[in-house]
Design a protein that fits this description.
By secondary structure, the chain is α/β, with parallel strands linked by helices. The protein contains eight helices and four strands; from the N terminus they run ααααβαβαβαβα. The longest helix is centred in the N-terminal third of the chain and has 16 residues.
Length: about 230
């Protein structure tokens, strides 16, 4: 964009307590959106004034705070107490959602079964769709045999558009993504009509915890930084 400095928040070296985004009297580096993009800030605030968006954002903020214990104590020390699975159940309850969609990876069937049971035990109706639904061969999207995982065999493509379509058809109120691949998750987000949250992302090496290799960069995971 001409005349606009682009955000570079990931490179901000200002201490947290002195950041403009955290402190009204704080400072920011070149490209700081809090200080340099006032019109965009106001535009976003306008969206939050929409009744449905405002309620969703309000409940999300309340859920965020409730994940910490002892907030009334002084001095206050942050003490997180709720795993994401519980957060999802509580937030869906706060929003009054009853019908939840679960779009999951075929490589995580046991995890999906456990998540589905947890949701049902919390009183939700669930509609779950595996990524390989439809059994569409990868050749139909132009994948050559040598580009498949299992060369020389039928290999069903991941079908996030079908997953989204089936959940849309079921009129789910809130969707949960569990372990979809990079790119496939993007297509699901694009085609799903209901708001969607992520319980876990796909990371075959790190046990679906992609930050593991980020935490070990500089000692055990230097290979990640090399193209």
């Amino acid at each position: 964009m001409k005349g606009k400095s682009q955000p570079e928040c990931a490179g901000c070296a200002i201490p947290v307590e002195k950041k403009a985004c955290m402190n009204p009297q704080g400072a920011g580096p070149k490209g700081c959106p809090t200080l340099g993009r006032k019109a965009d800030v106001q535009k976003a605030k306008g969206e939050y004034r929409k009744e449905d968006v405002a309620e969703f954002a309000r409940k999300a903020s309340i859920q965020e705070a409730e994940c910490y214990a002892g907030r009334e104590k002084r001095p206050y020390t942050m003490h997180p107490v709720k795993p994401r699975m519980l957060e999802i159940c509580e937030f869906a309850g706060k929003m009054g959602y009853r019908k939840l969609g679960l779009a999951f990876c075929g490589g995580l069937p046991r995890e999906a079964a456990v998540v589905n049971e947890i949701l049902k035990n919390h009183g939700f109706e669930t509609i779950s769709v595996v990524c390989k639904a439809g059994a569409v061969p990868k050749e139909e999207i132009g994948v050559r045999d040598e580009e498949k995982i299992f060369i020389g065999r039928h290999e069903s493509m991941c079908n996030p558009i079908l997953q989204a379509s089936l959940l849309n058809d079921a009129a789910t109120q809130f969707n949960i993504v569990l372990g979809l691949c990079v790119g496939h998750d993007s297509l699901f987000f694009k085609y799903a009509k209901a708001p969607t949250t992520v319980l876990a992302v796909k990371d075959r090496v790190c046990g679906h915890n992609p930050l593991a290799c980020i935490y070990t960069i500089g000692n055990y995971s230097s290979w990640v930084t090399k193209a």
